[in-house]
Amino acid sequence: MSKPAIVLAHGAWHTPEAFGLVTKRLEDAGYSVHGRKLPSVGNDNPPEDLSQDITAVQELVTEAIGDGNDVIVIPHSWAGIIVASALSGWGKKEREERGLKGGVVKFAYICAFMIPENVSLMDAIQHQVPHWWDFDGPYTIANDPNVFYNDLSREEQQKWMSKLETHAYATKKAKSTAAAWKEIPTWYLVCEDDNAIPVAAQEAMVDGAKAMGADVQAERIKASHSPFLSQPDVVANWVRRAAGEKL
Hints:
Distance between the termini: 17 Å
CATH topology: Rossmann fold
CATH class: Alpha Beta
Structural class: alpha/beta
CATH superfamily: Alpha/Beta hydrolase fold, catalytic domain
Number of strands: 9
Shape: globular
Number of domains: 1
CATH architecture: 3-Layer(aba) Sandwich
Oligomer: single chain
Strand order of the largest sheet: 2-1-3-4-8-9
Radius of gyration: 17 Å
């Protein structure tokens, strides 16, 4: 049986480079991995809503499906909102009902926002601007290495902070348009030492999704908001298990 294709969707301020260690491990294990920078990040003409990020994810998934592949989509943080908004109706079952081959067979959320439709990121955080956001016109900037990278060395923290880009503030106020995790089975990696989305918030989102009838399987690791940097072997093996491997 062929392995599913993998789509990686990065979080706010980040780029696909952050997934590099996990990407290599998955490719070495025989997976086709797809990713690209979301338009809400580092854009001189920042988007006003979610539509550009949604389109980017849909294009990635279309590429990954190809001539009929199964696909696992892995959103981190912010991208949980985008993936859920983008992929309602993109599940393999839903696509087959329309006479189409392949589709999304699973989500694998990595400490990602898992919110219902018609809810914005700002709604999800009760419109309380985090202390670690700075503002520059239409942009937000992340300013504290201990929020994302508290389990990395100081040198690694500075390295990855230097790679962060701006994130369009308007997109954080834009409402989600769907909750595809209601349709597609989801694995969720709860990160216990996350200083960006506290573990209690992650667990509340998982419990909320289950209460809405979603098929969610949660697993916990002792990691920061960036386990793909601090524990790439653990994350890659978790993805491989999500894909059906027995490890």
